[in-house]
Amino acid sequence: MTNKALIIGSSGVVGSALAERLLAEGWQVHGVSRGRTPGVPGVQQISADLTSSDVAGALAGVDPTHVFITAWSRQANEEENIRVNGAMVRNVLDAVGPAGTVQHVALVTGLKHYLGPFEAYGKGAVPVTPFREEQGRQDVANFYYEQEDRVFDAARQYGFTWSVHRPHTIIGFAIGNAMNMGQTLAVYATLCKHTGQPFVFPGSRQQWEGLADMTDARLLAKQLLWASTSDAGRNEDFNVVNGDVFRWQWLWPKLADYFGVEAAPLPAETSPLEARMQYAPALWREIAQQHGLAEPDVTRLASWWHTDADLGRPMEVITDMTKSRKAGFLEYQSTPEAFFDLFERLKRERLIP
């Protein structure tokens, strides 16, 4: 029987990379999104409000063998994040579970499992790095835990297996994505080049000097495919990062060189992007007109707040991959090459000059 995927968040940075991977492997792919961004060609797109209990109507007849949950909805506080995002998972699985076709559900969360939610980002008793799956949950409200619990409940009720995947900051291609450092830095560097301003690191000294790692969306897609079709991936949680480590003080000049801009020394005070980008919307429209770019709305390409949150963390953040490597997932991706591959695609798609 042909594998049939249902990707929740199919136009996002993870969902689109996963859709491309599954289609290349011969899967049938249905994708659910909010319908605001074109989906991957070949995906049967479904527009649905996952917070509504009427999800079953939108998903009637899909009957997937595998469900991949790669989306979340940002709310005003963690209490609302828990309520809304937990309901989304529950609504989807209650819609597709009763048919009995679902074999596996994969949930993508992230390192806020260890760091805590945005409201208390890295402010609690953060586990010792590198983060390992055995460290478990923090004693704090976190919508990731709610999403996991809704998957676990549905797995018991409907008899499928599950996997949970925890990437670090994701590098990948997507338009209108709320969390996209790669594209954000590409837009920032383009603005710096256009104005002749130096490329200033917007984060903390701890991030600048400490070790870091990241996750290419294409590598995450490979792990999702592996876990959903491998005995070793069933009913397990996995970290997922590229496999290399770096320091931003080493990588930042390489990104600057790619765009032909000056990499500034680390400023004495943290210099967040969100506070410096009030001029960006008007300037980006000017750049888009000058170079014939496809997207003049900078807010659909860059997410200043998220990049500030990741690069502003007051501690080193690195991730252990031992568990999935011992289980058989051995893929690797160079992080600098992940950035450069993304930048080249942004150029091909006429999203940056």
TrEMBL record:
Lineage: superkingdom: Bacteria
Alphabetical list of InterPro entries matching this protein: NAD(P)-bd_dom_sf (IPR036291), PRISE-like_Rossmann-fold (IPR055222)
Location of the PRISE-like Rossmann-fold domain: 65-353
Official protein name in the record: Nucleoside-diphosphate-sugar epimerase
